């Protein structure tokens, strides 16, 4: 824990072992799974496992699940669906899936219970089935747009207080959850930490989704010069919270490499990190920052 920023990373020994099996020098193939989420937790988890296996069959090294993929996205239900990490049924299933498919899994998010607090938490699993990172949503989704949407996660959830990264081979990946993407300071810290990619399991809504969703994803990609992947639940029009869908992966230039519709579907995308290196050399903003003028992030939050 340095300056309020905690990094959770696997040990070098595991890292080396996994790297051999799972990535090459310039990239890997990622799956973004846009799953239908119902009130039946076991069915949600079983569906995720099936789709992870399909991603493996399609040559993917990494599978990314949506925010709140095992439970309805509903403040009144978070506690009821919550489970402990890593001992709960969802974590056990994800760990097993990572091991049997020899994949990395970014387990979207699930309602986590810890010391009677409930968190919106993302877990990450390596191909040995080990939990290598955990991120609790830092910025709770509390908004009120008259005639649009009123949602108050803080009625039911506590916020996380740390930034979290993990390594896939030589690539460093920073984690956020949905509303976290609106806070560019957080992404800037991940960039400063050297992240090659940011992943945000998400569930935007029908009011903000149309204008803000791809804008924010592309903005974070361009200002961090990193890949950004976001996985949403599929849209179910008669549910309490209607998700925007449109899961996507954007490259460091801000180009949308692939985008889902609102329907239940998966994306499989080859990521070539050479493109990222080229961009960082051609537009070297990292070395051009005027930290003599705006030094808040750099001074307060040294990793
Ligand atoms: N689940 C969320 O955090 C939703 C965020 C969202 O929709 C937004 O507009 O921001």
Automatic annotation (TrEMBL):
Taxonomic superkingdom: Eukaryota
One GO biological process term: oxaloacetate metabolic process
Keywords: Hydrolase
Pfam family, one: CN_hydrolase
Reactions the enzyme catalyzes: 2-oxosuccinamate + H2O = oxaloacetate + NH4(+); 2-oxoglutaramate + H2O = 2-oxoglutarate + NH4(+)
Gene Ontology CC terms, in alphabetical order: mitochondrion
InterPro entries noted in UniProt: C-N_Hydrolase, C-N_Hydrolase_sf, Nit1/2_C-N_Hydrolase
MF (Gene Ontology): omega-amidase activity
Gene3D superfamilies given in the database record: Carbon-nitrogen hydrolase
Enzyme category, top tier: hydrolase
Domain CN hydrolase: 28-273
Keyword Electron transport assigned: no
Annotated EC: 3.5.1.3
Similarity annotation: Belongs to the carbon-nitrogen hydrolase superfamily. NIT1/NIT2 family.
Matches recorded under PANTHER family: NITRILASE-RELATED, OMEGA-AMIDASE NIT2
Protein name, UniProt field: omega-amidase
Gene: Nit2_1
């Amino acid at each position: 824990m340095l300056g309020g920023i905690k990094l959770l990373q696997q040990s070098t020994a595991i890292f080396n072992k996994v790297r051999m099996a799972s990535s090459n020098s310039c990239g890997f193939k990622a799956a973004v799974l846009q799953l239908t989420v119902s009130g039946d937790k076991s069915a949600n988890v079983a569906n995720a496992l099936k789709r992870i296996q399909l991603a493996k069959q399609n040559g993917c090294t990494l599978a990314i699940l949506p925010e709140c993929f095992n439970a309805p996205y509903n403040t009144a239900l978070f506690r009821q669906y919550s489970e402990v990490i890593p001992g709960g049924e969802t974590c056990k299933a994800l760990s097993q899936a990572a091991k049997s498919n020899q994949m990395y899994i970014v387990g979207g998010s699930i309602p986590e219970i810890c010391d009677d607090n409930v968190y919106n938490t993302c877990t990450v699993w390596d191909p040995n089935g080990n939990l290598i990172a955990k991120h609790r949503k830092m910025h709770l989704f509390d908004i009120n747009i008259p005639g649009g949407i009123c949602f108050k996660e803080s009625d039911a959830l506590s916020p996380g207080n740390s930034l979290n990264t993990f390594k896939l081979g030589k690539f460093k990946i920073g984690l956020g959850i949905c509303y976290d993407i609106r806070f560019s300071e957080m992404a800037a810290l991940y960039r400063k930490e050297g992240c090659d990619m940011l992943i945000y399991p998400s569930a935007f809504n029908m009011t903000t989704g149309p204008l803000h969703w791809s804008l924010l994803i592309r903005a974070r990609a361009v200002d961090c010069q990193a890949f950004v992947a976001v996985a949403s639940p599929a849209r179910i029009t008669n549910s309490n919270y209607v998700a925007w869908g449109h899961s996507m992966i954007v490259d460091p230039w801000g180009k949308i490499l692939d985008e889902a519709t609102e329907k239940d579907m998966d994306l499989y995308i080859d990521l070539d990190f050479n493109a990222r290196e080229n961009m960082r050399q051609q537009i070297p903003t990292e070395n051009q920052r005027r930290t003599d003028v705006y030094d808040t992030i750099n001074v307060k939050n040294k990793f």
